[in-house]
Amino acid sequence: MVTFFPPPPPPPPPPPGDGDRRRFRPRRLRVVAAYCRRPDGRFLVTQRPEGGPMGGLWEFPGGKVEPGEGDRAALKREIGEELGVDCRVTDRVFAIIHEYRGFTLDFRVYACHLLGEPQKIEVADLRWITSEELRGLSFPPADAALVESLLHGHALGADRVDRRKLKKRPRPITIE
Fold it and tell me: Which residues contact 103 (CB under 8 A, 6 or more apart)?
């Protein structure tokens, strides 16, 4: 069973200033993740450290894109920081917009080739798993459509991106 947990509620927005008639708009975060696949079909997942946002949940390695940074540069930086290894980022293989309470997540996944063996530097754990081994791991809600696709045996690759579904918003789900 794969369980998707909702994130903790975000802090309330700051009160508007006097005469500020603008409506509060949730912030938008762009997050990039790596789909690292070995020739035997296993792919890499990492576990978020306990105590942080969504601590203990599994995810595809990656992180936030900083202002002025491109997706591929951000992914290379994040892989280096989290796993202590360099990588070669290739095609975007998955993308989705997910609405969390208080912010919008622009989640993009790229095929990535690690140039070395990953280490647990800023992650609690890492595993090379098959799609069947996704069952029993808990993922954030934004990963739901990606996990579903892998569970149903869909290969990820530039030729597999359905551009019509890039803005589809998945709901948190449990897979049994």
Answer: 10, 26, 27, 28, 29
Angle, alpha carbons 139-132-94 (nearest 5°): 55
The beta strand positions in the chain, using DSSP E, are: 2-4, 27-35, 43-47, 58-59, 62-64, 87-100, 103-114, 125-129, 138-139, 174-175
In this structure, the chain runs to a length of 176
Whether this model's pTM surpasses 0.85? no
108 near 128, Cβ under 8 Å? no
Q: Which superfamily is assigned to 28-175 in CATH?
A: Nucleoside Triphosphate Pyrophosphohydrolase (3.90.79.10)
Q: List, for residues 59-98, the tens digit of each pLDDT value.
A: 999 999 999 999 999 999 999 999 999 999 999 999 999 9
85: β partners? none
**Beta strands at 2-4 and 138-139: parallel, antiparallel or unpaired:** parallel
**Rounded-to-5 percentages of helix, strand, coil across the chain:** 20, 35, 50
Count Cα atoms within 13 angstroms, Cβ side, for 82. Answer: 26
User: Contact 2/147 with Cβ under 8 angstroms?
Assistant: yes
